[in-house]
Every structure is written in C-alpha cells, then in structure tokens.
Write a structure and sequence with these properties.
The protein is mostly helical. The protein is built from three helices and no strands. The protein has one domain (3-86).
Length: 89
C-alpha cells in the first residue's frame, strides 16, 4: 500500500468527524438563535401592547433597560457557545 493511500485512509475519518461536528454545531446555533430572536420579538410585541401608564412606571423602574441587558446576555452566551464549538484541540 502506498504511503499516500495509507495516510488518506487514516486522515479521512478524522476529517469527516470534524466536518460533521461543525455541521451539527452550525445547525444547533441557527436553531437556538431563531428561538431566541423569536422570544425577543414576542417580548417586544407584548411590551408595545401595554398601556402608556404602565410603560411609564416600568421605564422609571428601569425594567426596559434590564430586559435589554438580559437579551444581550443571552445573545452573548449563545455566541460564546458557538466559538467554543469551533475551536479545534
């Protein structure tokens, strides 16, 4: 058996495994990202439907800022999960 064929027979399963892992990571990231975006848009729609007086009290309490920070934290955590998945050891 030539050395090139031997090396290809060893390397091809490793390459296939890496590509499968990356593909699964991308699919799961897209799915979770779509779910998070849908939840954020649902929260925004519900927020817009509140009466003006309630919105004023919530703005004084800083709830709109808190919800923005929470949504940003969820998005950042999701991005960090993806970056961890794509690093090869």
């Amino acid at each position: 058996m030539p050395i090139a064929a031997f090396l290809m027979s060893i390397a091809s399963p490793i390459v296939i495994r890496v590509l499968i892992q990356l593909g699964i990571g991308i699919v799961s990231y897209v799915g979770v990202e779509a779910a998070v975006n849908q939840l954020i848009s649902l929260a925004q729609n519900q927020w817009a439907g509140l009466p003006a007086t309630v919105l004023q009290f919530m703005a004084i309490a800083g709830i709109n800022t808190a919800l923005g920070i929470i949504a940003g934290g969820i998005t950042a955590r999701l991005s960090m999960m993806v970056f961890k998945r794509f690093t090869l050891k």
